[in-house]
UniProtKB/TrEMBL annotation:
PANTHER family: BACTERIOHEMERYTHRIN. Keywords: Iron, Metal-binding. InterPro entries: Haemerythrin_Fe_BS, Hemerythrin, Hemerythrin-like, Hemerythrin-like_sf, Hemerythrin_metal-bd. It comes from Fusibacter ferrireducens. This is Hemerythrin family protein. The keyword Iron applies. Belongs to the hemerythrin family. The keyword Metal-binding applies. Residues 12-133 form the Hemerythrin-like domain.
Length: 138
């Protein structure tokens, strides 16, 4: 289950709020995947993909601007992880016919990918720039 946890919090509100929203989008996906009352939720999947894409592009841009402003040495590798994430979303978006004909499977794939990536990225990759950002805020 994809829910916000205390360990995700950095004490940097601009980033924490965006991460919360990302986890929320993941949570809606989880609800959708467990909704057995119907079998067509193509529109919702596409809406979520779009929201996720827009949202992560903005979030990554903000985050990168913050850590670049303090000269974070892991900047390149971190940006690369962001790129891979956006690419993966684009892969889903590029074949909406496949999404339509395999909705449940797509949703499960997407959910697995998002859950793993978000949690690992937030607790590991993102956490690495936190001390530097917090020190710069003082
Ligand atoms: Fe990040």
């Amino acid at each position: 289950m994809l829910v916000w946890k205390k360990e995700f919090e950095f004490g940097i509100p601009a980033i924490d709020d965006q991460h919360k929203r990302l986890i929320e989008i993941g949570g809606s996906m989880f609800e959708l995947v467990n909704d057995d009352t119907r079998d067509d939720y193509f529109d919702e999947i596409v809406a979520m993909l779009k929201e996720l894409e827009n949202y992560t592009v903005n979030h990554f841009r903000d985050e990168e601007a913050l850590f670049d402003a303090v000269g974070y040495v892991g900047s390149m590798a971190h940006k690369f992880e962001h790129k891979i994430f956006v690419k993966k979303l684009e892969t889903f978006m590029s074949d909406l016919d496949a999404v339509d004909s395999n909705q449940k499977e797509t949703l499960l794939n997407l959910l697995n990918f998002i859950a793993d990536w978000l949690v690992l990225h937030i607790v590991k990759t993102d956490r690495e720039y936190v001390p530097l950002l917090l020190a710069a805020q003082k």
